[in-house]
Write a structure and sequence with these properties.
This protein has 373 residues and is α/β, with parallel strands linked by helices. The protein folds into two domains: 165 residues, 3-Layer(aba) Sandwich (Rossmann fold), CATH 3.40.50; 143 residues, no CATH class. 45% of the residues lie in helices and 14% in strands. The chain contains 16 helices and eight strands. The strands form three sheets. It has a four-stranded mixed β-sheet, sandwiched between helices. The chain has a two-stranded antiparallel ribbon with strand order 5-6. Helix 5 packs antiparallel against helix 6 and helix 15 crosses helix 16.
């Protein structure tokens, strides 16, 4: 993500080269590079040629490599190179599924695309600052909103033929995971974002929706998995990146993911004021959650807890208002200790414990302005 202050400078028009230098650092801050072990020689050669200065010979070599890699029978390719940048591929998920089918297990897929941040940089470098914001607003509606809204989707694809789409980096990474890949390397080559993914499983079969609401699987009472309803605060397909973000970003104070680039700018505002959690009242009415209780955790996050805490956690329903807001713990160990104090007290005196915690949480949030980090 480009820092807000970068777009709040005093210059009338931004310098594209400076903006790209900023992006090359900011968008890859927590990404593994292409310098990973055990890469096949074929992939190493492809990377080296891709890094060469742009020119006719480089373009021809890459185009020939891409064409030949797709001629291999299904399930036999070691390395596959996308035939075009992903913004120009009309049915991207269908294309990624075909790539998955072509590759051997653990085979490598290299692709490239122009990120939404690069697209924004192009707009701000071509127009004066005030006019650029005006252009960017309508460009955002056209390329980022219209393709995802049912009423406007067909009109957008009729006009564009679906070959000039704009993708935020988290959406492309999430689509790769959705289609059975794991990302092993990311970096800019020249001014195009390149990703190396490895085939790990078949693509997911359930259809994906872009609606205002999202359903997120969480561990509930007795260890049963249920879907939590929330307003969408992340880029599309970001929910498939949870393990990847944890491995590369680690946890911040308070137990949240550090520098979580999956969250949109308006999503951060919604989270700050708890707007995103309003739909969870549906889970409360369905009897899957209660008003006060430990946070509903994803399986990946739940697995970070000690076995004793895992067993203790599933004795109660998760809640909308967690004990976190009473103690404000910072480390995972402190979070578990805070939750253990609450659950032990709740199992002994359920109503009295929730009543006491409810007013402490309200006092800390409403009157003391305490928020999760």
């Amino acid at each position: 993500m480009v820092d807000k202050e970068f777009y709040n400078g005093k210059s009338r028009r931004y310098n594209y080269d400076k903006m790209m230098k900023h992006l090359i650092v900011s968008e890859t801050r927590h990404a593994p590079t292409f310098d990973f072990d055990h890469a096949p020689d074929e992939l190493q050669e492809l990377i080296q040629v891709a890094k060469q200065p742009r020119g006719p010979e480089r373009s021809k070599w890459l185009n020939d490599f891409a064409a030949n890699s797709w001629k291999v029978p299904d399930g036999e390719a070691n390395v596959l190179f996308a035939e075009d940048h992903l913004n120009a591929i009309r049915y991207l998920n269908r294309y990624l599924r075909e790539a998955n089918k072509k590759l051997k297990q653990d085979g490598y897929f290299l692709c490239a695309f122009d990120t939404a941040q690069k697209h924004r940089a192009q707009i701000f470098s071509r127009h004066g600052r005030v006019f650029a914001y005006f252009i960017y607003f309508f460009d955002f509606l056209w390329h980022r909103v219209f393709p995802k809204v049912f009423l406007t989707r067909r009109f957008y694809y009729f006009c564009t033929k679906g070959v000039k789409k704009v993708y935020p980096r988290p959406e492309v990474l999430g689509r790769l995971y959705y289609c059975g890949f794991e990302v092993v390397g990311e970096q800019y080559i020249h001014d195009r974002y390149c990703v190396i993914a490895q085939k790990k499983r078949p693509p997911l079969s359930e259809p994906y929706t872009y609606g205002l609401f999202v359903k997120l699987p969480r561990v509930g009472k007795d260890g049963k998995i249920f879907n939590v309803f929330k307003f969408r605060t992340m880029y599309a397909y970001s929910e498939f990146l949870q393990k990847y973000v944890y491995v590369n970003n680690d946890l911040d104070l308070g137990g949240k993911f550090k520098d979580d680039y999956r969250i949109t700018e308006w999503g951060r505002v919604m989270r700050k004021f708890w707007i995103d959690e309003i739909p969870m009242f549906v889970n409360i009415m369905a009897g899957q959650m209660k008003l006060v209780g430990v946070r509903p955790l994803s399986q990946q996050y739940f697995d970070l807890y000690t076995p004793d805490m895992q067993q203790l956690r599933i004795k109660t329903k998760p809640g909308l208002l967690p004990p976190y807001y009473v103690d404000l713990p910072e480390t995972l160990e402190e979070i578990q200790a805070s939750e253990k104090r609450y659950i032990d007290a709740y199992l002994e005196h359920p109503f009295r414990t929730d009543w006491k915690y409810f007013w402490k949480i309200i006092n800390n949030i409403v009157f003391k302005g305490k928020r999760s980090r």
